[in-house]
């Protein structure tokens, strides 16, 4: 189906938005539901919120990285990452060291305590994912992953749209 086939025949102020078929709303709705559930569970079981978990997960996959890199991977604002990293450091879950080449930058990695916490949470996170995808066939999961990658790549096209340009 082409983009034109997906768009309503008429558009303007009177055009109703069909939230069941409006992809950005569907993605946001699913994301919000998953984040809310993860946040409640991870706070109760592990004492971290979902934002902190995402930073821990990035550091587990890419140790010794900068705050800027964390922002790139998870799509968070620099201020959010800075606040989260400071909070994790105050609880000895991450270590922060100044970058020798650039005094304004810092390198961050998981402490032993942070790695242990990550190891406990990742088991739960992967089980949540397994349950989320439990009704999908393996080939459907691969297709979904490919579609999500395309959507991610196309986000810059949507964000670059300016009706006045």
Structure overview:
By secondary structure, this protein is mainly alpha-helical. It has a domain at about 30-120: Winged helix-like DNA-binding domain superfamily/Winged helix DNA-binding domain (Arc Repressor Mutant, subunit A, Orthogonal Bundle), CATH 1.10.10.10. The protein is built from 7 helices and 2 strands. A two-stranded antiparallel sheet has the order 1-2. The radius of gyration is 20 Å and the shape is globular.
Protein topology:
Layout: H1 3-6, H2 23-46, H3 50-61, H4 67-74, H5 78-90, E1 94-99, E2 102-110, H6 112-132, H7 138-159
Antiparallel strand pairs: 1-2
Give a quick precis of the structure.
The protein has 165 residues and is mainly α. It has seven helices and two strands, in the order H-H-H-H-H-E-E-H-H. The protein has helices at 3-6, 23-46, 50-61, 67-74, 78-90, 112-132, 138-159; strands at residues 94-99, 102-110.
């Amino acid at each position: 189906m082409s983009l034109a086939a997906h768009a309503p025949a008429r558009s303007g102020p009177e055009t109703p938005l069909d939230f069941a078929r409006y992809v950005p709303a569907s993605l946001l709705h699913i994301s919000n539901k998953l984040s809310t559930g993860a946040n409640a569970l991870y706070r109760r079981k592990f004492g971290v919120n979902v934002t902190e978990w995402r930073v821990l997960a990035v550091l587990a996959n890419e140790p010794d990285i900068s705050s800027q890199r964390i922002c790139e991977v998870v799509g968070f604002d620099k201020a959010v990452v800075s606040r989260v990293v400071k909070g994790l450091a105050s609880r000895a879950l991450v270590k922060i060291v100044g970058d020798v080449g650039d005094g304004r930058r810092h390198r961050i990695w998981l402490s032993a305590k942070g790695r242990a916490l990550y190891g406990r949470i990742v088991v739960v996170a992967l089980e949540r994912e397994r349950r989320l995808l439990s009704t999908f066939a393996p080939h459907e999961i691969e297709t979904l992953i490919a579609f999500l990658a395309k959507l991610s790549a196309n986000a810059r096209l949507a964000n670059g749209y300016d009706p006045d340009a």
